[in-house]
Amino acid sequence: MDWSDELHAVLLGINGYMNRPDIDRAFLARAGVKLDRALFPLLTRIGLHRPIGVVELANLAGRDHSVVSRQVAKLESLGLVERRAATGDQRVRLLEPSAKGQAMLDRFAAARRGLMAEHLDDWTDAERTQLLDLLRRFSAAIADPGRTAGATRRRSVVATDPETGPKPPN
């Protein structure tokens, strides 16, 4: 199997894990939050990409714009998000978490940190840093549709020796 096939399989596995209803329900329970699990990823993305329009949010969530629009209306009715006019264009309405929504996002963050600590408790700080660095680099590489091989190649990732720790790039 080619390395890219293995990468694809791993990414599908992670995606499947991240989209499992039972995992979402358990996470929401851990955070002490009662929220429709379909709204949870939208609120999370609004918090991460604030301010954001509904069309961009739908694209990020991989959902139909009309479905996301109805779900955002539900988030608004729950007092978790607010719409405001975009700077420079009063016709464009952008979403941001309300104070109540931010408090919920803070609970999500605490629950996520706890889960990550449990799941990666046997990883060193250097391994966690290397994972994050590689994922950031991978995300940047696939997010740029005009990228050509080597055009944005960087040596930003720090190699890690298990005995001596991080090594600077060559």
Describe the structure.
With 170 residues, the chain is of the alpha+beta class. It has 2 domains: 17-121, Winged helix-like DNA-binding domain superfamily/Winged helix DNA-binding domain (Arc Repressor Mutant, subunit A, Orthogonal Bundle); 123-170, no CATH class. It has helices at residues 3-18, 21-31, 40-49, 54-61, 65-77, 99-119, 125-143; strands at 81-86, 89-97, 159-161, 165-167. The strands form 2 sheets. The chain has a two-stranded antiparallel ribbon. Strands 3-4 form a two-stranded antiparallel ribbon. A hairpin with a 2-residue loop joins strand 1 (81-86) and strand 2 (89-97). The protein starts with a helix and ends with a strand.
Write the layout of secondary structure elements.
Layout: H1 3-18, H2 21-31, H3 40-49, H4 54-61, H5 65-77, E1 81-86, E2 89-97, H6 99-119, H7 125-143, E3 159-161, E4 165-167
Antiparallel strand pairs: 1-2, 3-4
Helix pairs in contact: 2-6, 4-5
Largest sheet: number of strands, sense, barrel closure: 2 strands, antiparallel
Shape: globular
Sheet with the most strands: spatial strand order: 1-2
CATH class of the largest domain: Mainly Alpha
Number of domains: 2
Number of separate strands: 4
CATH architecture call of the largest domain:
Orthogonal Bundle
Total helices: the number is 7
Write the CATH homologous superfamily of the largest domain: Winged helix-like DNA-binding domain superfamily/Winged helix DNA-binding domain
Query: How far apart are the termini?
Result: 30 Å
**Spans where pLDDT lies below 50 across 5 or more residues:** 154-158
Mean model confidence by pLDDT: 88
